[in-house]
Write a structure and sequence with these properties.
Chain A has about 80 residues and is an all-alpha fold. Chain A is about 70% helix and about 0% strand. Chain B is an all-alpha fold. Chain B is elongated, with a radius of gyration of 20 Å. The relative contact order of chain B is 0.12. Classes of the chains: A mainly alpha (about 80), B mainly alpha (about 200).
């Protein structure tokens, strides 16, 4: 036992993954996760969440929005005058 | 963004644009417009993003002369875009905040996860299990439901993939606060994905 249970470990996850915890706490958490299949699964899904959300919200710039931006900047600045 | 070696770097372009070279400003717009639009969609909505995009580049144009290179140009531009988005959002009617606490993980009295490893891992497979369009709609929905402080930190840190230190500079807070907010948001969003993929938290 190193004092870490799943619930306390979860609260430290962000700092754990960014490596900003005190070394002894970092080590204790590593040990807990290595021996706890539930935490190993939780950490994996916690790490995957940003990637899944990034892919799902990756909007592309529509051509009409780009055209409006250029028209707007032409009217409000000295740029986009040529062509 | 990776700039090919043959093209001028951001700082060089910014200096030329500040000196009145319009083609340099146009090159900056071309280089960053897609990223600013994506950020604006994530911080506001698809409907508001075009306005935020315009406001951002107008501000960039006006303030180019004050860019001194203390930070990277990209970080400086992101700060302007983020502020434009937050201003825009503030001008809108406050949306009712819905609690996402129901998606937080649950523990037994000894502090152990209640769910099984297989259940805990389901969120990781949300993009395989769910229809792409369906997930895209739900992902936007949950970001809009996050309380603003969590949303801002999560969008910049996790969706725009900015280092925590840069997010702290852009949002004007301590890195520890950024981590705490990103953490809360990530827990909620993770539970939400899990729920969508069929496992109740």
């Amino acid at each position: 036992m190193n004092g870490i249970v799943c619930a306390t470990g979860v609260e430290l996850l962000m700092e754990f993954l960014e490596g900003v915890l005190p070394p002894d706490v970092q080590r204790a958490l590593e040990e807990h996760v290595a021996g706890c299949s539930r935490c190993a699964a939780f950490v994996a899904s916690y790490r995957d969440t940003p990637r899944i959300m990034r892919d799902a919200t990756s909007a592309t710039l529509p051509a009409d929005v780009e055209a409006s931006l250029r028209a707007f900047l032409r009217a409000r600045t000295d740029s986009f005058r040529s062509k | 963004m990776n700039v090919p070696a043959s093209e001028p770097g951001d700082e060089a372009l910014a200096a030329r644009a500040a000196a009145g070279d319009h083609s340099a400003f146009e090159a900056i717009v071309a280089r960053y417009q897609a990223r600013v639009f994506r950020l604006a969609c994530r911080l506001t909505s698809d409907t508001d993003a075009p306005d935020v995009l315009q406001e951002t580049f107008l501000q960039v144009y006006r303030h180019l002369a004050s860019f001194r290179g203390e930070s990277q140009f990209g970080t400086w531009l992101y700060r302007i875009a983020t502020n434009a988005a937050l201003m825009h959002r503030r001008a809108r009617a406050r949306r009712p905040s819905e609690s996402l606490d129901v998606f937080l993980p649950t523990f037994d009295p000894e502090g152990r996860h209640v769910a099984t490893p297989a259940e805990l891992l389901v969120a990781s497979r949300a993009d395989e299990i769910l229809d792409r369009q369906f997930l895209a709609g739900k992902a936007r929905e949950v970001i809009a439901r996050l309380p603003d402080p969590y949303r801002d930190a999560f969008v910049l840190r996790d969706l725009e993939d900015m280092p925590t230190a840069d997010v702290a500079r852009v949002l004007g807070m301590e890195p520890a606060t950024v981590r705490q907010r990103v953490h809360r948001a990530r827990l909620m969003v993770r539970g939400y994905l899990s729920d969508l993929a069929g496992v109740k938290p």
